[in-house]
Automatic annotation (TrEMBL):
<dbReference type="InterPro" id="IPR036412">
    <property type="entry name" value="HAD-like_sf"/>
</dbReference>
<dbReference type="InterPro" id="IPR023214">
    <property type="entry name" value="HAD_sf"/>
</dbReference>
<dbReference type="InterPro" id="IPR023198">
    <property type="entry name" value="PGP-like_dom2"/>
</dbReference>
<dbReference type="Pfam" id="PF00702">
    <property type="entry name" value="Hydrolase"/>
</dbReference>
<dbReference type="GO" id="GO:0016787">
    <property type="term" value="F:hydrolase activity"/>
</dbReference>
<dbReference type="InterPro" id="IPR050155">
    <property type="entry name" value="HAD-like_hydrolase_sf"/>
</dbReference>
<protein>
    <submittedName>
        <fullName>HAD family hydrolase</fullName>
        <ecNumber>3.-.-.-</ecNumber>
    </submittedName>
</protein>
<keyword id="KW-0378">Hydrolase</keyword>
Length: 216
């Protein structure tokens, strides 16, 4: 099973919202941003995208220097927040992953996030050891989730997998690579048709274990 991180395993807004406001306070102090902080909905609605695409939506008229500084600050503040214990996983994530791991399922992460952030979340919440590997666009410089998942599948010689995620990019990554897609409908960041093309939908992460047992 290949998991997205934000909006699938990690309740991203629990960390991202306080970090987002702090980031814009610093950007204003440093002269990289003027005026009010853009609405939280802009960044929450952009989860699953690559950072350059996120900033095109959140601060479209900003300079490249401002966007690069936003990259640095976002990672720095998120890692600081994780160290302080800010943020939570979705209910049932730890127990479900442990159960799947105990069943012998090979578990992976494929995220469009930055390498240190993705690994930082897994480490902070004590789930890193349950995964065979953690893949991020930040580490592998992939242009899309499709490319990242293909890289993962090829590297580990995987022919059959479930792609588990909450955004259309996860559905696309699974479908384009010929894998089964399990859509996570509980995060609520996406559009109504966000998970169109999924083989099954989860309204609670723990339902994944039931699906796996049925598939066996």
């Amino acid at each position: 099973m290949i998991f997205d991180m934000d909006g699938t395993l990690f309740q991203t807004e629990s960390l991202l919202v306080p970090v987002y406001h702090k980031m814009f306070d610093i950007l204003r102090e440093e002269g990289h941003h003027e005026g009010a902080t853009p609405p939280e909905e802009l960044i929450l609605g952009s989860l699953g995208m690559l950072l350059p695409d996120i900033w095109k939506r959140v601060i479209p008229n900003s300079t490249e220097a401002a966007k690069l500084r936003a990259d640095e600050l976002l990672l720095q503040l998120e890692l600081e927040g994780l160290e302080q214990g800010i943020g939570v996983l979705y209910p049932g994530v730890v127990d479900t992953l442990k159960a799947l791991h105990d069943y012998g399922v090979k578990l992976y992460v494929a995220s469009n996030g930055l390498e240190h952030y993705v690994k930082g979340v897994a480490k902070a919440y004590g789930i890193a050891h349950l995964f065979d590997d953690l893949y991020s666009a930040g580490e592998y410089a992939t242009a899309s989730k499709v490319d990242l998942v293909k890289l993962l599948l090829d590297k580990h010689n995987i022919r059959s997998a479930w792609m588990v995620g909450d955004r259309s990019s996860d559905v696309e990554a699974g479908v384009e690579n010929g894998q089964t897609v399990i859509g996570c409908a509980y995060a609520g960041f996406g559009r109504e048709d966000e998970l169109k093309g999924s083989s099954a939908l989860l309204n609670d992460f723990t339902e994944l274990l039931t699906l796996y047992k049925q598939a066996e």
